[in-house]
Amino acid sequence: MDAGLVMYEEEFDRITSILNRLRVESSANIVFLVDKNGQQIAGAGEIDRVDTTSLASLTAGNVAATDGLAKLIGEKEFSILFHEGKKDNIHISIVGQRLILVVIFDERSSLGLVRLRVRKAAAEIERVLTQMEAKAKEVGAMEAASPFAEITDEDIDALFSE
Q1: Which of 20, 31, 70, 81 has its Cβ near the most Cβ atoms within 10 Å?
Q2: Helix 111-144 and helix 9-25: axis angle, to 10°?
Q3: Structural domain that includes position 105
Q4: What pLDDT digit, counting tens, does each position of 112-156 carry?
Q5: CB burial string 12-34: b at 16+ within 10 A, e below
Q6: Is residue 1 part of a domain?
Q7: What are the CA-CA distances from residue 38 to residues 57, 65, 67, 121 (Å)?
Q8: In sequence order, what are the beta bridge partners of 81?
Q9: Is the pTM of this model over 0.70?
Q10: Do residues 61 and 55 touch, judged by C-beta distance below 8 A?
């Protein structure tokens, strides 16, 4: 996520709820959200089945590599990636141009269903991100308006040296 963007428990719970609903509605095994640096933000489903740290990191690398491919052919980015395996499939999509939504599913689901449900979940996650940004600006404005905002380290040193 952005260095200046803070996720509070309320937003984390909302995102986790969205991921859980996506997992159920798309009949997926695992759903998780990572930032473009490869840090896992939240997950749902059979998370203990995989090494999520490696999966998050490799997913971010995959997206970065694919962005390079897109630029080579004149595209801004490929916002959706799909990998089909013998048993499991991975659907990767970019959310809000900074997060990566990963859905791992098997033959109990279909690519069409996953894409449909991901579209809805991505829109909900983007709304949460917009609210987080607004909240961060509000908190920043409140901190800037603090009566202590103008006090410097020198002022504190001077106060205690007297």
Answers
A1: 31
A2: 170
A3: 9-161
A4: 999 999 999 999 999 999 988 888 777 665 555 555 556 667 766
A5: eebbeebbebbbebbebbbbbbb
A6: no
A7: 4, 13, 15, 20
A8: 92
A9: yes
A10: no
Residue whose tokens read 């995102």: 15
In a domain, 28, yes or no: yes
CA geometry: angle at 27 spanning 24 and 33, to 5°? 65
Residue count of the chain: 162
Residues 18-67 pLDDT 10s: 999 999 999 999 999 999 999 999 999 999 989 999 999 999 999 999 99
Q: One-letter amino acid identity for 77?
A: E
The pLDDT, as a whole number, for residue 142 is 57
DSSP class of residue 76? Answer: S
- In degrees and rounded to multiples of 5, residue 64 shows phi and psi of -60, -45
- The residue assigned the tokens 């840090």 is 39
What contacts 117, CB < 8 A, 6 or more positions away? 22, 25, 26
Q: Supply the CATH number for residue 99's domain.
A: 3.30.450.30
